[in-house]
């Protein structure tokens, strides 16, 4: 009976060792999960008046998440607009300044017509009619010269306001940037700023990453390197916390062209290999995959 018991225990031990070895060797390479992380920075300077985000929060493109104090920019814009209006008020009123010449022309044309009728009736001479015609030509020349002069003056004043207009457009752009609008789908990973803090252009506000698809960065040995190609489907396994694996379908998104020394935190199938190649496997995230988790590859 004792002999049978010993045989049974030996059999169980062998089975357990075999099971452990199988689990240990079912993967060809391993690595950690990462995501494309984007740091969103302030595009304007001023006191942060609102920042409605928290770490772990899901954001969509177009979400308004806060704003930066824009009082000084608004006041500067009002100043430029007032300056522009003051400059434009100096533009001459062409119609009113030509009114007197237009009236003289009207009278000269009336006199020309009257003289023409008198010549036909032999009451006036041809010279009087010629003088009336010359008078009209002279007035027309004066009107033309006056119009040209007024247009040049008006155009010059308008050009003086062009730099002011550009400055107003620049301020409008800066004012639009005081409203903090999220531009991408993703999860807030880190929040760097708080309400009432001073923001300056380029200061990080938060870090965001789209975790709907996550990247497993793994390392393979030289002999495994020849088995991998871009867009290849690969099985990705993650420990489910219960002694088993959760399997995912992955796609090879990137393969390094240069070998590097094996990272200390990465184990490969052939631990004697000194040089390995980095690969990135794109995996659709079902919510269980997290940045920093270990994953394993099976070719």
Write the layout of secondary structure elements.
Layout (H helix, E strand, L loop, with lengths): L1 H24 L3 E6 L2 E5 L4 E6 L6 E2 L4 E5 L2 H18 L5 H27 L5 H35 L1 H15 L2 E3 L4 E6 L6 E2 L4 E6 L3 E9 H4 L7 E7 L5 E17 L13 E10 L9 E5 L1
Antiparallel strand pairs: 1-10, 1-14, 2-9, 3-5, 3-8, 4-7, 5-6, 7-9, 10-13, 11-12, 11-14, 12-13
Helix pairs in contact: 2-5, 3-4
Q: How far apart are the first and last residues' alpha carbons, in Å?
A: 46 Å
Radius of gyration: 42 Å
Strand order of the largest sheet: 1-10-13-12-11-14
The coarse overall form would be: elongated
Total beta strand runs: 14
Taken as a percent bin, the fraction of beta residues is 25-35%
Quaternary form: single chain
Protein structure class = alpha+beta
Number of helical stretches of at least 4 residues: 6
Give, in order, the helices and strands.
HEEEEEHHHHEEEEEHEEEE
Mean pLDDT: 86
User: Which segments are poorly predicted (pLDDT under 50) over 5 or more consecutive residues?
Assistant: 1-23
Outline the biggest β-sheet. 6 strands, antiparallel, barrel
The proportion of residues forming helix, as a percent range, comes to: 40-55%
């Amino acid at each position: 009976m004792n002999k049978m018991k010993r045989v049974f225990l030996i059999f169980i031990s062998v089975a357990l060792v075999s099971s452990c070895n199988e689990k240990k060797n079912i993967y060809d390479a391993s690595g950690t999960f990462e995501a494309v992380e984007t740091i969103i920075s302030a595009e304007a300077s001023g006191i942060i008046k609102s920042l409605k985000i928290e770490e772990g929060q899901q954001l969509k493109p177009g979400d308004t998440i806060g704003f930066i104090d824009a009082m000084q920019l608004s006041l500067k814009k009002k100043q430029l607009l007032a300056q522009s209006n003051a400059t434009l008020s100096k533009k001459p009123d062409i119609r009113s300044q030509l009114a007197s010449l237009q009236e003289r022309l009207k009278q000269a044309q009336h006199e020309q017509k009257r003289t023409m009728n008198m010549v036909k009736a032999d009451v006036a001479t041809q010279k009087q009619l010629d003088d009336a015609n010359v008078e009209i030509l002279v007035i027309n020349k004066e009107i033309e010269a006056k119009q040209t002069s007024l247009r040049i003056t008006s155009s010059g004043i308008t050009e003086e306001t062009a730099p002011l207009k550009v400055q107003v457009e620049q301020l409008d752009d800066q004012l639009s940037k005081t409203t903090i609008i999220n531009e991408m789908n993703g999860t807030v990973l880190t929040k760097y700023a708080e309400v009432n803090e001073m923001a300056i252009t380029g200061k990080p506000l938060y870090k965001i990453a789209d975790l709907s698809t996550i990247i497993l960065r793994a390392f393979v040995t030289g002999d495994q390197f020849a088995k991998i190609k871009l867009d290849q489907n690969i099985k990705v396994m993650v420990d489910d916390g219960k002694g088993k694996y959760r399997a995912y379908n992955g796609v090879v998104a990137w393969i390094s062209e240069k070998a590097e020394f094996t990272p200390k935190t990465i184990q490969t199938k052939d631990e004697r290999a000194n040089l390995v190649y980095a690969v990135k496997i794109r995996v659709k995230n079902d919510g269980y995959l997290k940045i920093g988790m270990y994953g394993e590859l099976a070719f």
